């Protein structure tokens, strides 16, 4: 595997389910990100981790719970979601968190909440 | 606060024609500016970025963009469109320096007609 991978690519869940999204980066980077991409809205930054420590939580509801066990893996645990949470969830990684550190994106997980 | 405006959610050009995708930003400090491309069912890929120095920036696949401070613009151009350029394009801004968080525009979907 190369670059940034995400699993699953598609997920359908009910409002009472618990599921997790997984992201893995094979680039040796130190920073990882979760973004939400909804139709007709700009990409929204959700969380940033740098060296496994969360450095940014962009006022995300607690039904989204991130976990970063090491610099290569990032999870997004989902619980009691709402239909408006249906979106494409993108993971990204970068060497550092400065503006000159290019972010590399995974293909995303398409989430549908019924 | 920073913001990004992309004029035109959908642009259609003929193969071989000029591609012009517009991006205007607002920022209280000199910004770092980015263009990303997203092909169907894929994550975002960096096309080019402006940090400091030369205001005309060349990127991959023949694209370039010019930072015009007086117009607060960072329009993306390509002299001759190719069918493979059909994708969605996102402009983004960051504060620069240690502030690497990206603020994205809503995106412009480019269609290329044969």
Put the structure in a nutshell.
The complex is a heterodimer of chains A (114) and B (114). With 114 residues, chain A is mostly beta strands.
In N-to-C order, the SSE pattern of chain A is EEEEEEEEEEE
Low-pLDDT segments of chain A: none
| H-E order of chain B | EEEEEEEEEEE
Q: Based on the structure, what is the oligomeric state of the protein chains?
A: heterodimer
Shape of chain A: globular
Q: How helical, in percent, are the residues of chain B?
A: under 10%
Q: Largest interface, and how many residues on either side? A: A-B, 24 and 28 residues
Strand content of chain A: over 45%
Report the span from N to C terminus of chain A.
32 Å
The residue-averaged pLDDT of chain A reads 93
Q: C-alpha Rg of chain B, in Å?
A: 13 Å
Question: Whole-number average pLDDT of chain B?
Answer: 92
Number of E-state strands of chain A:
11
Main sheet overview of chain B: 6 strands, mixed
Shape field of chain B: globular
* Poorly predicted runs of 5 or more residues of chain B: none
